[in-house]
Structures are given as C-alpha cells and as structure tokens.
C-alpha cells in the first residue's frame, strides 16, 4: 500500500455518507469487467475520494512512523510480513557482471542441464547471443530434457522467427506472454519484466540482463551495456521457479509440477536469501514495499543503481528522510548513453527536490547503465529486474533476489564504488541550469509518466 490516510474525525458528513459508495462498489462486483479495468476503476474511485476530501475542506494525511532500524532482527520479520516471502538460510551466491560472466555461466548451466530448464525473460532480440541460446535450448530439448521458454510479447517482439522455429522443432515448449488481443487492449501495457532462468530446479539466475548483443562483453564501450546478475543455489530457487510457473500458467493455462521442477533443496551455503516476485496487475507490488522498508530502515549507507530513476512522491519522501537521518544516499543512473531519451529527460526533471535535500545522484559515463541493484548498511542487498520507476512498481511483473549477508553486501558495495568512479556527479546548481529544451521534454513526459 503506497499511502495511508490518517483518521480524521473532522471529515465532513458529505464524505462519510456511505450510500453512493456502496452502490458503486456493488456495480463493480456485479459486472464482468476485466481485472485491469477493475483495478483502473479502483484507482479512479480513489482519486475521486481525494478530490472530494479537498472539496469538502479536509486535507488527506499520511501516517508517519519512526524509522525501524535495519540492524534490528524485527526488520526482516516486518519485511516478510509485508511481502509474504520468507528469508531463507543456506545459499551459495555468485554475483555476475555484464555479458562476459553472465552469458558464459547461463549457457554452461543450460548445456549441463539433466532434469529441466525453465526460462522467462523480457528481452530476446536477434543476433549472436540469441542464436547461441536458441541452439543450446533446442539441443537440450532434443536430448529429452523438458525445456520451457516464455517471452514477453512486447520486449521480445524483434526476435527472429528462425530461432522460434529452431526451438519449437527441437521440442522446446515455447509461449508468448500477453500478446496483444483486440478484446483486452489495456492488458498489453502490463508486461512481465522478469528475467529468471532455473536449471534442474536447483540453480537459479536473475538480474537485469536480456538476451541481446548489447550485453555482450564487459561494458567496454558505448555499444555494450553495463549490467549485474546473480546465480544462486539453495532453497530460494523454489521461489524463482514459482515466478516462472506463475507467468507460464497465465500464458498457457498449464502448470509445471513435480520434483523435476521443485526438487527437495538442502541448505548448502552461508547466505540468507529472499525471492521476491510482484505482479501489479494482480494488485501485488511487493518490490515497492521492499524499497520503502529498506530506505526507511537504513542507518548508514544506501546505494542504488537503476536504469530508470522515477521515484514517486512517497519514495522521494523516504529518500529525503534517510538523508536527514544521516544516511549516505547515492544513486547511479544512466548518463548520455541511454535507450530512451524521453525517460532519461523525465528522470532528470525529477532530480531537483532530491539533490536539494542531499541525495547524491551520479550519471554513468562509459555506456548505458542497465543494472538494478540496492545495498544498505553493508548487510542487505538486492539484485533483480526491478527499476526504480512506476513501470516496475505498478505495471510490470518483476522478480528480485534479496540477500542478508555481509559478504554479498560488501561485494555489491565494491561494485557500486567501481561504477561510481566511472560516473559524473550531478549538482543542484547544474540541474537548475539545464537547457530549456531538456526542461520541456521532461515537462512533456511528466504528463504521461504513469503509462511509461
């Protein structure tokens, strides 16, 4: 829940009277609306209520609370309660940088798979790495390994038909997620942005990397992007498999079950991990709660890396409150190399309030920064598909792996500081003097940012 209204016994009678509200709610429940349309109606009713409160002379209030320190064990109990995902012991974790490390590890795991392969991803484009994955997946399927591939119909729309045909002919179970349908046009804006590969139900990969040549190499130039992924073994892999299974069931109306996909998993390492999936179309945004709680509970440091930085008002409030508590808040975002000029300028348009309050924002210089990571106080870290924007929090299905581990968190801090050395700080004065052309583009994008 993004905000709350404090009880106000002075609220005028015109807002308290429930008759009209009851009639509207009854109409909604009795109609055969799509889930998307129902959620849209709920949002409209909320906005109408806010306007009614203002019109009647009452001002909405947000419930405040003292920060609950991340160092306190109850932070994790609170996070589990809010997100419905347990923090589990017993994992081996390896952080992977860019395509050189990530693609090599993923392809090796695919080629060695014996029981099953499941893979959901947003980006699957054409090129060298797309061909390599198609060959590897088809080869395993031909050798009797059940292989399932689910691609987002928007993010992977440029995929070559030859690779689709190759995999289907090899026996890969292939499906598109939410293709455009004339009778469900609004659904098309709700995508799966998850990037989850599970091998034999025991090894899981996630992060920001898509299947495209832009991720090849090691971010060595402007044409090869910077990203971060992770491979994990241990009990949390069941939750990664569930993220795939959830999307697969929606797309195909079939389930994956049994020990080929959900084998017994033992504790094999020292790292505590949480697998967090969210599906805003189903009114579920656990990753939003993850960010809110982590920001509100950080005590010393908070380092965020994201491809799209468009925090809403509540997240901005929490970031500013963290600075006021003495937390060193730093954010790395893309610079001149980005994949969407409008979103880049829209993000820059929102820097002012944060910069003025002391949030430190840096623009990565060598190439497009596509990683999505967060690390707090040197003990708590997150890697996944979630960006710091409305699309990830309100429109996309996402998946993040979170870690309670000093070793993993310190490694993420080291990576962050290396990226920071290749980034340029943005000052409040510089932001105020940005060209009017950039201001206009940012202002224009602000009108439609809820859809982006």
From TrEMBL:
PANTHER family linked to this entry: CARDIOLIPIN SYNTHASE, PHOSPHOLIPASE D
Domain PLD phosphodiesterase: 188-215, 365-392
SMART domains for the chain: PLDc
Gene Ontology molecular-function annotations: cardiolipin synthase activity
Species name: Candidatus Manganitrophus noduliformans
Residues making up the signal peptide according to the UniProt record: none
PROSITE patterns: PLD
GO CC terms in record: membrane
Swiss-Prot/TrEMBL GO biological process terms: cardiolipin biosynthetic process
InterPro entries from the UniProt entry: PLD-like_dom (IPR025202), PLipase_D/transphosphatidylase (IPR001736)
Pfam families linked: PLDc_2 (PF13091)
Lineage start: Bacteria, Pseudomonadati, Nitrospirota, Nitrospiria, Candidatus Troglogloeales
Protein name listed in UniProt: Cardiolipin synthase B
